[in-house]
Amino acid sequence: MAERTGIFAGDDPFALARTWLAEARTQEINDSNAMALSSVDAEGMPNVRIVLLKSIEDNGFVFFTNYGSVKAQELDQSGKAAFVIHWKTLRRQIRARGIISREDGPIADEYYASRSLKSRLGAWASDQSQPLENRAALENALAKATAEHGDNPPRPPFWGGYRLAPLELEFWGDGEARLHNRFRWRRASIDAPWDVTLLNP
């Protein structure tokens, strides 16, 4: 393994990612957990959008969405995805590529229950990614969801999480004169050991 010191030190990339995210939470003004998630459709055409990373587990990164959305359809179809998290104030970023699986159990229930009531009802009201006639139609759908589910809505069956188990991670730190610091963590499978390589900027 390449020698790593300072902000790159450690033998567990998930612990390192949690440390960087914790630092970002103290310095980024808004959405320190925002990440650009990339997927591809059935024809291989790429898509990218910002989603919020909700947890870093011991072997994966978890986020949540509507299972009827375009992103969910693409994730389910390919079973693979990539993301990048960039922290402008820290001058760091993390890139990942890996295997996607659904998180549709107690973890999804727990996170859904932690959201604000308006967000929980909004999940019922929005037919995410589908055409919308006008804003009034969405407001009517929200009113209907509120009347139907009240102040304790259950998690919709079409809403839950995804876990990206990376086969490759890159930790990037800004360097003087654009001579950046880049460490790539790579493994052959999600159960294999990591190989770490220092990359040219």
UniProtKB/TrEMBL annotation:
GO terms for molecular function: FMN binding; pyridoxamine phosphate oxidase activity. Its EC number is 1.4.3.5. PROSITE patterns: PYRIDOX_OXIDASE. Residues 24-144 form the Pyridoxamine 5'-phosphate oxidase N-terminal domain. Keywords: Flavoprotein, FMN, Oxidoreductase, Pyridoxine biosynthesis. The keyword Flavoprotein applies. Gene3D superfamilies: Electron Transport, Fmn-binding Protein, Chain A. It comes from the Bacteria. SUPFAM superfamilies: FMN-binding split barrel. The keyword DNA-binding does not apply. Homodimer. Catalyzes the oxidation of either pyridoxine 5'-phosphate (PNP) or pyridoxamine 5'-phosphate (PMP) into pyridoxal 5'-phosphate (PLP). Belongs to the pyridoxamine 5'-phosphate oxidase family. NCBIfam families: pdxH, PRK05679.1. PANTHER family: PYRIDOXINE-5'-PHOSPHATE OXIDASE, PYRIDOXINE-5-PHOSPHATE OXIDASE. This is Pyridoxine/pyridoxamine 5'-phosphate oxidase. It comes from Sulfitobacter donghicola DSW-25 = KCTC 12864 = JCM 14565. The gene is pdxH.
